[in-house]
Amino acid sequence: MSETVIETIGLRKEFRTRRGRHIVAVHDLDLAVPAGGVHGFLGPNGSGKTTTIRMLLGLARASKGQMRLFGRPVPEHLPEVIGRIGAVVEQPKFVPTFTGRKNLTLLARTGGVPSTRVDAALAQVGLTGLDKERFRGYSLGMKQRLAIAATLLKNPDLLILDEPTNGLDPAGIRDIRDMIRGLGESGVTVLLSSHILAEVQQVCDSVSIIGNGRLLAAGKVDELVSGHGGGTTRVGISDPGAAADHLVRAGYSVTRDNGHLLVDGPGRADQITRILAAKELYVHELTPVRADLESIFLELTKGEALQASTPSDAGTTTGGAA
Questions:
Q1: Do residues 296 and 269 make contact, with C-beta atoms less than 8 angstroms apart?
Q2: How far apart are CA 43 and CA 194, in angstroms?
Q3: Quick check: is 296 in a domain?
Q4: What is the distance between the alpha carbons of residues 258 and 211, in angstroms, rounded to a whole number?
Q5: Would you give the DSSP letter of residue 155?
Q6: What pLDDT was estimated at residue 301?
Q7: Is residue 84 included in any domain, yes or no?
Q8: What is the rounded CA–CA span in Å between residue 200 and residue 192?
Q9: DSSP per-residue codes, 95-135
Q10: pLDDT band at 308 (very low <50, low <70, confident <90, very high)
């Protein structure tokens, strides 16, 4: 059995607002993150992701429950394991007039890290060759990569990233995504917190999906995806209205989708073809619909009003290194 790097049992966070309103930001959360690869910690803004991360790192106090990092209870034993953890959870604190390399060199010197780690960290985040530019001239994506490089100076076993693609354009998102995938493949365990479920699906090996501070689903991405939406077929046909009527009579559930039909029900897709062909209705498209994490999340939260549970999760909290 692989090592569990992060574990929470019955983790709960409650507080009162200035107006006396009682808020439960995290509801008895059971979380397990295996060693190696990228684990997505997914949910909408305000779902409790940042609050959970802050409790794990000793930046917020849990109301109840247990937390373990590398098998050690925290926050009691956090000093024993913090050297194995890198985290990007707040706005980065770099000197704007210094180059990327000089900023990292100063951090390495302050933290007692060998200067050789600077080159290695720059290479890991793809900033080799760009390290002599001043930080103030960096794009937002480059600033995010430098923040991650700062956490990699101590060669951590666990890297925690909280919404690392917030504010980035599509090219920047792709660059960060590729970098995170490479870190996971290198042996680092990456906990990736994000509300962009479709984007994260391309990176993560396993996920935990939460809403309103509650765990909704957890497991390997492929297993979650294969377990949802497998019975839906997209049907293209010249007379969708008539086709829908016949399929409903045959026991299928049918919805319209931009001139196509989405069909759920018993039997295989070829049975849909036979039913319609018997009525002289012939399909020109018959495609199994593969679920994605976003559609799974919508299914899990159907009928539940998800909204921000805590103001600290609602903002764009990214960047800074710990």
A1: no
A2: 7
A3: no
A4: 30
A5: -
A6: 66
A7: yes
A8: 8
A9: -TTSBHHHHHHHHHHHTT--THHHHHHHHHTT-TTTTTSBG
A10: very low
Cβ-contact 12, 64 below 8 angstroms: yes
Alpha helices by DSSP H, listed for 153-277, are 170-185, 197-200, 221-226, 240-249, 269-277
For residue 201, is pLDDT > 70?
A: yes
Alpha carbon of 262 to those of 121, 178, 190, 300: distances in Å?
48, 33, 36, 19
Strand pairing report for 22-34 and 4-16: antiparallel
Q: Do both 15 and 83 map to the same domain?
A: yes
What was the pLDDT predicted at 307? 45
Average pLDDT rounded to a whole number, residues 173-195: 91
Whether residue 211 is found in the same domain as residue 73? yes
Are 176 and 222 in the same domain?
Answer: yes
If DSSP codes are grouped into helix, strand and coil, which group holds residue 243?
helix
124 CB contacts (<8 Å, ≥6 apart)? 149, 152, 179, 182, 183, 186
Same-domain pairing of 153 and 267: no
Domain count, the chain: 2
Longest dimension (CA), the chain: 77
Q: Cα separation of 270 and 260, whole Å? A: 17
Q: Which two tokens stand for residue 183?
A: 């870190």
Instruction: Name the residue with higher pLDDT: 200 or 114.
Output: 114
Residue 193, both tokens: 């917190």
Enclosing domain of residue 255: 232-289
Classify residue 294: in a domain, yes or no.
Answer: no
Q: Which two tokens stand for residue 62?
A: 């849990």
The stretches of the chain forming alpha helices (DSSP H) are 49-56, 78-81, 100-110, 116-124, 140-152, 170-185, 197-200, 221-226, 240-249, 269-277, 293-300, 311-314
Residue 236 sits in the same domain as residue 208: no
- Compute the average pLDDT of residues 193-197: 84
In a domain, 101, yes or no: yes
pTM of the model: 0.76
